[in-house]
């Protein structure tokens, strides 16, 4: 048997060291993420209504039920509307805010703090506060009544009627809270990108006649494309998984007009105790988020070319 030399032992230790450091994290993730995910995947092909009994294999019946479930398709529609309503605003408006607060003017530090404050507020606190604002006799309706726009106010959280025949009022009201809370977070991401752009580029562009607002179109936006892609994918994934706002403010009502996929999953699992069916919904949600994650990787690779 060949004896291992000290040099070979050092090489082996160097190769094993990263895996030894990763081992605790892998064990924790396996117990808390990977194994539960595999169990949920298995349960989506079973019926598991009685928690005291073993799950029974039923094949694809849960998926057939999901295909015929009108409420699921309604929640999927609401989730897509949430994506289309929230993501474009969270991609564009924070960039505008970042450009404004990146100016070297007096008082900009205060504005950065003011815009970022909603991010550190708990969603539970924010949801309750906005629910009070949206109330029938809340501040928003009182302002509208005082200026004579709507004499009876607007049923922000209790109306299934659609704005322009597209988005329910209740869903749009919840979207506004998500946007309000996310503006500061994505503004900071953009601000980091803006501060990484050398000022020499702007000075050279000014000599060529690209100054004022035009410099942002010619220089800022092209150089910020990786950040734009990052914010677009992150905000899309967050909008797909929205739950707290819906749970606190509307609980999916009225008439499922603000119910999203995650809230429907929660409702099936913990209200109706349809564990297997909830796992099936979760699997569909996982595939949607996986698609968005793959899109993010593809966009990052495209930016690196």
Structure characterization notes:
The chain is an all-alpha fold. The chain has one domain (63-304): MetI-like (MetI-like fold). Helices cover 72% and strands 3% of the residues. It has helices at residues 6-43, 61-68, 70-101, 108-120, 123-134, 139-146, 169-195, 199-207, 214-223, 225-240, 244-249, 261-271, 275-304, and strands at 46-47, 56-57, 162-163, 167-168. A two-stranded antiparallel sheet has the order 1-2. Strands 3-4 form a two-stranded antiparallel ribbon. Strand 3 (162-163) and strand 4 (167-168) form a beta hairpin. Helix 3 (70-101) runs antiparallel to helix 10 (225-240), helix 4 packs across helix 7 and helix 10 runs antiparallel to helix 13. The longest helix is centred in the first third of the chain and has 38 residues, at 6-43. The protein starts with 5 loop residues before the first helix and ends with a helix.
Question: Which key features would you list for this structure?
Answer:
305 residues, mainly alpha, MetI-like fold, two-stranded antiparallel sheet, 13 helices, 3% strand
Our Rg estimate from Cα atoms comes to 25 Å
What coarse outline follows from CA principal-axis ratios? flat
When the domains are counted, the total is: 1
CATH topology: MetI-like fold
Strand count, sense and barrel status of the largest sheet are: 2 strands, antiparallel
CATH level-4 homologous superfamily: MetI-like
Q: How far from one another are the termini?
A: 50 Å
Q: Class in CATH?
A: Mainly Alpha
Q: Total number of β-strand segments?
A: 4
Mean pLDDT comes to: 86
Share of residues in helices: over 70%
CATH architecture heading: Orthogonal Bundle
User: How do the SSEs run, as a string of H and E?
Assistant: HEEHHHHHEEHHHHHHH
């Amino acid at each position: 048997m060949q004896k291992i030399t000290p040099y070979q032992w050092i090489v082996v230790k160097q190769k094993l060291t990263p895996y030894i450091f990763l081992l605790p994290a892998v064990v924790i993730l396996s117990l808390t993420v990977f194994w539960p995910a595999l169990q949920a995947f298995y349960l989506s092909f079973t019926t598991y209504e009685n928690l005291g009994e073993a799950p029974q294999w039923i094949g694809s019946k849960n998926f057939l039920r999901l295909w015929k479930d009108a409420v699921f398709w309604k929640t999927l529609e609401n989730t897509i509307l949430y994506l289309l309503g929230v993501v474009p605003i969270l991609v564009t408006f924070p960039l505008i805010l970042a450009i404004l607060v990146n100016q070297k003017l007096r008082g900009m530090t205060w504005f950065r703090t003011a815009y970022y404050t909603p991010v550190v507020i708990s969603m539970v606190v924010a949801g309750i506060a906005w629910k009070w604002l949206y109330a029938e006799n809340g501040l928003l309706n009182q302002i509208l009544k005082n200026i004579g726009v709507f004499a009876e106010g607007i049923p922000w959280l209790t109306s299934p009627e659609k704005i322009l025949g597209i988005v329910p009022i209740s869903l749009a009201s919840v979207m506004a809270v998500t946007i309000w809370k996310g503006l500061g977070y994505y503004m900071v991401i953009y601000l980091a990108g803006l501060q990484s752009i050398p000022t020499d580029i702007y000075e050279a562009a000014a000599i060529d006649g690209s100054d004022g607002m035009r410099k942002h179109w010619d220089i800022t936006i092209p150089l910020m494309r990786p950040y734009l892609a990052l914010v677009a994918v992150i905000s899309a994934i967050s909008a797909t998984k929205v739950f707290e706002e819906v749970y606190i403010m509307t609980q999916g009502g009225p008439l499922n007009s603000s119910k999203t996929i995650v809230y429907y999953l929660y409702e099936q699992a913990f209200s109706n105790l349809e564990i297997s069916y909830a796992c099936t919904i979760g699997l569909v949600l996982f595939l949607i988020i996986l698609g968005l994650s793959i899109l993010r990787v593809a966009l990052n690779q495209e930016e690196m070319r």
